[in-house]
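dumping this here before i forget
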Amino acid sequence: MKNNVEICHDKIAENYDTKCDNDLYMRLYEDVTWDNIKRFLPKNKNSLILDAGGGTGRWAVKIAKLGYNVVLTDISNNMLKAAEKKIERNNLSNKIRIVRADIKNMRMFQNEKFGLVLCEGDPLSYCGDYKKALKELVKVLKKRGHLIVSVDNRITNIYHLIKQKKFDEIENFLRTGNVVIQDSSSYIDFPIHAFTQEELKNLFAKNGLKVLRVIGKCVILNKMIDELLKDKKPYKHILKLCIRLADNSDYINFGGHLEIVGLK
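structure:
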């Protein structure tokens, strides 16, 4: 039986890439993400990479174009169908393998199979059991391999509750990180877990990972910069600033999302 996260992503899959490509802030978010991913790509191009919860393959395609072999998984059939079309358009069918899977169950893969595991776009926040999901991702990661995970930031998600005038939910959200949100595209409700930096670091440490880097995405959060982003010259300066400040401890919590890198 499908859960609401799967139903939501099945519903938004067809227009997902178009919406992302036309969103100026999303472009900034993804450029900051790509800067971080590139730092931890395996030196050996023969290393197999897992893009877990990778949706339409936005990262899988970029990585495969560099010569790596990638396994792309997602819980949403429609997301994977969109990914398949994109992979074919880019002539990457020999570099990317698609597997429908829930990140809470990676049993179809042998232990320590992947040199790098990505979990971008916050599936750890949406999956319903982030502790179980992280254990599964660590299990399939090779020793000395890197795990990169993006999640919702608890601090900045308070603003969404304030905007919706859900003041009675803020105290519990601050304490637990748990809240039910409504996707703005599908109007489907589903629960999320938003993390603090310390909670995320402790989760990685408990699973035997050495934390190498934590960043905020993007630390220049306010959407009032959209007008500036339309011009190439200001965009380059804004991106450079976001990258420079991404792992600065004074600025990380300005990001709507946290991204953490761990070494097994």
